[in-house]
């Protein structure tokens, strides 16, 4: 499609929810760049606004409608100024609600589900012709193929996401993901390696592999054997320049021996693992269809910690799942106490339309959920604080990612995903430095640069070099 206007069109993409959406937003920006759209953060100059939405809990989904209310005003304002503002809804709310969005919010010109982003140019043409353009087909193979063909713009930060797998076949009874993101599909090995190599060549030092169920990833390896995520990580670790590897989000059932061995053997695999458990009660775990018990999880954590003693763990936890009693909740508290997490995300159960748990008996009172959440969050906060405190006085490698909050400071990440602020020259962005941790802030650690580690020879990033 050719653009006959001289001024580039501008697109504002607003991202909600998980890292997968963040990755998809960047890929949508790449696709739209080929259509002549440049990114903007300023609504007043935008020709197109895309909301990349999240449907995981009711609150997240409702945010979309309040944002659409604001966009209605902006669209009218633009029209008064003789400009056309096109409004699109992408992501999981788009997938789950489709036509319903257009009905509830007439401001919306196009609706596009997460597996149809390659159709954006066609949808925009239809919207420009005055049509309500809606596309919510499940077409993951086509999305992967077409987005890959469109290419990926060079990363602007030393840490990048790389989607290796989409969708989920686990069907936890509370979760919309199997319905909004569809069945589990793995990207082929060679495509993942090509993208990782391109990222490394562009100066990326840390890659986080993404998937709704990332450790269910599998594919045919170049050795003719079926690979799991462990084998893939061993291969990715060989790519020069990729000093740090991470992956998220994992299911406890899919932590196989090779993956645990990767934690033992690969210095590149960072000692941090997000391993959601959701509940510590076997009764509730069963009702959630998690397919493991609290003891299975504890035993798994032991094996992982034996393989990699300095590993930090994080989790997702839900309180107030239908039927959850005080005793069930107490079991969750006990599990969290026993495991000892570096960080946790905790949520009140939110009934999602179409999921089995939504219509079950024993829905828990909001006030009870709030009370349990407060108790759990106090425990989580204490554990997080203890974990951060344990790093006080330690020396660690920090990947410098961007300028810090104050002049002369850089913001980086510890191996354990902690934000670290350090006084260091800007030229060190994209390198890994050795840092002594001297102070704990509310959201970050403060440290002093004491040396470099692995920084030499790294190609400069597009942004860092300019
Ligand atoms: N209610 C509350 N939390 C939920 N999550 C997923 N679905 C729901 C729901 N219906 C949480 C889970 C999951 C995280 C991404 O969101 O803890 O791991
Ligand atoms: Fe949802 Fe994760 Fe369960 Fe899949 S494994 S259904 S994404 S909570």
TrEMBL record:
Q: Where is the TRAM domain?
A: 389-451
Give its localization: Cytoplasm
Positions binding [4Fe-4S] cluster 1 in this chain are: 18, 54, 92
Q: How is the cofactor bound?
A: Binds 2 [4Fe-4S] clusters. One cluster is coordinated with 3 cysteines and an exchangeable S-adenosyl-L-methionine.
Give its E.C. classification number.
2.8.4.3
Catalytic activity reported: N(6)-dimethylallyladenosine(37) in tRNA + (sulfur carrier)-SH + AH2 + 2 S-adenosyl-L-methionine = 2-methylsulfanyl-N(6)-dimethylallyladenosine(37) in tRNA + (sulfur carrier)-H + 5'-deoxyadenosine + L-methionine + A + S-adenosyl-L-homocysteine + 2 H(+)
Alphabetized, the UniProt keywords read: 4Fe-4S, Cytoplasm, Iron, Iron-sulfur, Metal-binding, S-adenosyl-L-methionine, Transferase, tRNA processing
Give the Pfam families listed for this entry. Answer: Radical_SAM (PF04055), UPF0004 (PF00919)
Q: Which CDD domains match?
A: Radical_SAM (cd01335)
Cofactor(s), names only, from the UniProt record: [4Fe-4S] cluster
**Which InterPro entries does this one have?**
Elp3/MiaA/NifB-like_rSAM, Methylthiotransferase, Methylthiotransferase_CS, Methylthiotransferase_N, Methylthiotransferase_N_sf, MiaB_methiolase, rSAM, rSAM_horseshoe
Record domain Radical SAM core: where:
154-386
Give the top-rank taxon of the lineage listed in the UniProt record for this protein. Bacteria
Residue numbers binding [4Fe-4S] cluster 2? 168, 172, 175
Instruction: Report domain MTTase N-terminal positions.
Output: 9-129
One GO location term (cellular component): cytosol
One Gene Ontology molecular-function label: tRNA-2-methylthio-N(6)-dimethylallyladenosine(37) synthase activity
What SMART domains does the entry give?
Answer: Elp3
What the entry lists under HAMAP family is as follows: tRNA_metthiotr_MiaB (MF_01864)
The record's subunit annotation is:
Monomer.
By sequence similarity, the record places it as follows: Belongs to the methylthiotransferase family. MiaB subfamily.
> So what does this one do?
Catalyzes the methylthiolation of N6-(dimethylallyl)adenosine (i(6)A), leading to the formation of 2-methylthio-N6-(dimethylallyl)adenosine (ms(2)i(6)A) at position 37 in tRNAs that read codons beginning with uridine.
NCBIfam families annotated for this entry?
miaB-methiolase (TIGR01574), MiaB/RimO family radical SAM methylthiotransferase (TIGR00089)
Q: What is this protein called?
A: tRNA-2-methylthio-N(6)-dimethylallyladenosine synthase
- Protein species of origin: Prosthecomicrobium pneumaticum
- Phylogenetic lineage: Bacteria, Pseudomonadati, Pseudomonadota, Alphaproteobacteria, Hyphomicrobiales
The coding gene here is: miaB
